[in-house]
Design goal:
The protein has 269 residues and is of the alpha/beta class. Helix content is 42%, strand content 20%. It is built from 10 helices and 9 strands. Strands 1, 2, 3, 4, 5, 6, 7, 8 and 9 form a 9-stranded mixed sheet that branches. Helix 1 packs parallel to helix 2 and helix 8 runs antiparallel to helix 9. The radius of gyration is 18 Å and the shape is globular. The termini are far apart.
């Protein structure tokens, strides 16, 4: 492997059970594409969880374990990992999910073949806490369709994305004031700077989802991201999207969860 890796994986961790960490980090170690480094920023407050994470990372010299001395939060953890990354391609991943073996190989090949694309995502297989599949999610593949639909919903699955490091350097990375929807804020900001997006059709990550209900503050930050990044492109869609999210954010949580469950049932069919 070259001194400078091709890919840096950005992996935040927080109080994950050891068996979950084992599945997640092992799925990175077992990638068919091997020219990578993995920066794990572990903010665990549970000593046992932190020790387990450090122990697993020590098994592979491509892994770098970091335990910050102060609480950073998810955006701050990602920014720290980005600041330490050496590779030209950065891959996002969560410490409770599972990468399919070809994940990096497929996305690296796509980015090498598509120099005009700055960010590429992929499909998800949703799994429950026991690892059982519950549904699949696929996302639009072309940049223009991703941009249009992004005005209403999420068209990139954050734990699956790979993006070019120079974009984060030029246009900025995550805003640490966003406790939720930090990815939406980033995509909308980069979209306004002309960054092109794509998704490969493949399911490349198993995404662990214990519940369908969003945190109550998620929609407030979602709305904030849309308002602060408001721009002239897709103008009518942006206005309609802000109106829809604003209305959705005031609906009772049980109503929101019922809608999510209905959507998941349709996806399963």
């Amino acid at each position: 492997m070259a001194n400078t890796p091709k890919v840096t994986l950005l992996v935040p961790a927080f109080n994950e059970p050891e068996h979950i960490l084992e599945q997640s980090l092992s799925s990175v170690m077992e990638q068919t594409f091997t020219d990578f480094e993995c920066i794990v920023v572990d903010e665990s407050t549970c000593p046992e969880a932190a020790q387990a994470c450090q122990r697993i990372c020590a098994r592979d010299p491509r892994f770098h374990y970091i335990h910050p001395t102060e609480r950073l939060g998810l955006p701050g953890s990602l920014n720290l990992a980005i600041s330490l990354a050496r590779a030209p391609l950065l891959a996002r991943f969560d410490s409770d999910d599972v990468c399919l073996p070809e994940r990096l190989a497929i996305q690296v090949a796509f980015m090498d073949a598509s120099p005009d694309v700055g960010v590429v995502g992929a499909g998800l297989q949703l799994i429950d806490e026991a690892g059982r599949p519950t549904a699949e999610r696929h996302y639009p593949e072309r940049s223009e369709e991703i941009a249009r639909k992004l005005q209403f919903t999420t068209t990139l699955a954050h734990p699956t994305v790979m993006y070019r490091a120079d974009i984060a350097k030029r246009f900025g990375s995550y805003d640490p004031t966003f406790r939720f929807a930090e990815d939406l804020d980033l995509w909308l900001r980069w979209l306004n700077r002309g960054v092109k997006f794509a998704n490969v059709p493949d399911v490349l990550v198993k995404y662990r989802q214990a519940q369908t209900r969003r945190h109550p503050n998620h929609w407030r930050f979602n709305l904030r991201a849309r308002v602060r990044n408001f721009g002239p492109s897709h103008l009518l869609r942006r206005i309609a999207g802000i109106a829809c999210i604003g209305t959705w954010s005031i609906l009772p949580a049980p109503v929101q969860e019922s809608v999510f469950r209905f959507i998941l049932l349709r996806v399963r069919r």
